[in-house]
Amino acid sequence: MDTPALEIQLKTLPNQPGVYQYFDKEGTIIYVGKAKNLKKRVSSYFTKTHDSGKTRVLVKKIARIKHIVVETETDALLLENNLIKKHRPRYNVMLKDDKSYPWICIKNERFPRVFSTRRVFKGGGDYFGPYTSVKTVHTLLDLIKGLYSLRTCNYQLSEEKIEAGKFKVCLEYHLGNCKGACEGLETEAEYNKNIKAIKQILKGNFKDSLQEFKKQMHGFAENMQFEEAQKIKEKIEILENYQAKSTIVNPKISNVDVFSIVSDESYGYINFLQLSYGSIIRSHTLELKKRLDETDQVLLQLAITEIRQRFHSKSKEIYVPFEVDLGEDIKVTVPKLGDKRHILDLSLRNAKYFRMERFKQMKIVDPDRHANRIMAQMKADLRLGEEPRHIECFDNSNIQGTNPVAACVVFKNGKPSKKDYRHFNIKTVEGPDDFASMEEVVYRRYKRLLDEDQPLPQLIIIDGGKGQLSSALKSLDALQLRGKIAIIGIAKRLEELFYPNDPIPLYLDKKSETLKIIQQLRNEAHRFGIEHHRNKRSKSALNTELETINGVGEKTVVELLKHFKSAKRVANAKLDELEDVVGKSRAEKVYNYYHGK
């Protein structure tokens, strides 16, 4: 895959949080940075004048940009930290491996302790984090301490030692911070119930704790214990406003490769995330061109082998969106829930962004290829016999039954061709009749194209369901065009596509490019029709009720409105007032019309 020019890479970056990596012309990574908005941050390197000489040198050396999309700024900070430690880029501040972020540990023991640590030991307990701020950790621990009574001593509280009376309660018990598990004053089941609630809080799931505390708060309030109720209320507010957990790192997910795929008619895009000790240390997306309409499973299996060889991966486990056959030496996991699924979704998101950027780059560099791809996709999605290079879409506009008009918009090669747009004033239909109006405009449009020997479209889209489609088909039958032009109707919700003689609608993926083109067509037709309808209404507004009076012409109407300012004032005017403006004869006609004489 050819690397696009830097200018094009910059234009197609996403407006999402993430981490960017700069490479020189030798392919060496020279800088890693994080951004709240990748597009704005990376573009600033090339648009601003930098005071630092080192920054100017860095910018001159950038030959290629890669990025990884994440969910939050915190995720970006953590990922940046991991990548700097892994690659040690020349222009980054060096991070020492022993300076790690803090975690919260729930110790693997009877009556578990909860504390902060910077070191993660396998089997040592459940670890939550990492957190980018020590203050956050202290806030959480203070919160937990305030919510639940936990022990802080380091005694080994085995059942035998407690029964033997080896321990005595300490000051924490007398202060109300501990319930005295060391003397058997609290059962293990009660203690573990609190630990379970704490784990949910650290995972960001506060529902059960919130319900319990709200129950307590209402109980204190009913008993007139307002100070206690206020304390519980403050705890509830802290819980509701806090988002506990980063999704980038999970210490239990160690030495794993993650793969995901998105594809279209011509290409497959496979993203690879490499995890080491729970941290993402690499992201790469591979583009594969299809030759024989290969399935996603075939493409993914091929890409996994290629990517693992390229990056010398020795991981024994991979996460993938569906089962693939990679032999007996590799454990294949298809995550459904939890952190594993979350990381797989993150990989999928990166694959989708890569695909979108390639499309945007292609649109700039090779617009013909872009149009060819869109046309091929529409042909397949809409089950057409040929590519819809020329599409026409019809929409009726007869708001409140007045001034019925219709619009026809034209797209060529997936883009609006505004010079070919046409308006229609409904001529043969009395009153609001969408079906008859559609029949009229479709007939008039294609009768004219035939008479003038103009090219016909490959696809007609009717804005409406089965009834509108049937009306349009009558006109095609009358012109002997049935079967020569593909025609479909779109239900108002844009989710149902109706075909002639097929009662079952076709549903397209809401994110598909084909549906987006159809939506654009329909919106354009609607906009164009409403615009014409509005103009027509504005003109007809001048044709007030006054003009319907026998013997009163346009000049008289203008004179009356100029003097009285409104038709209502004309209707309420006295005869002599009207005579002063338009003379006795016309004044009597106007006065008699409104006053019934």
CATH C-level of the largest domain: Alpha Beta
Main sheet overview: 8 strands, mixed
**Architecture of the largest domain, according to CATH?**
2-Layer Sandwich
Distance between the termini: 87 Å
- Average pLDDT, rounded to a whole number, is 81
* Domain tally: 5
What's the Cα radius of gyration?
A: 36 Å
Structure write-up:
The chain is of the alpha+beta class and 597 residues long. Helix content is 45%, strand content 18%. It has helices spanning 6-11, 38-47, 53-61, 73-87, 134-147, 159-163, 171-174, 188-202, 207-222, 226-241, 296-310, 338-365, 367-381, 434-451, 466-478, 513-542, 554-564, 567-572, 575-582, 584-595, and strands spanning 18-23, 29-35, 64-69, 103-107, 114-117, 125-128, 256-263, 267-276, 279-289, 317-319, 331-333, 390-397, 405-412, 415-416, 422-425, 459-463, 486-490, 497-499, 502-506. The strands form 4 sheets. Strands 12, 13, 14, 15, 16, 17, 18 and 19 form an 8-stranded mixed β-sheet that branches. The chain is extended and about 120 Å long. Mean pLDDT is 81; it is low at 243-247.
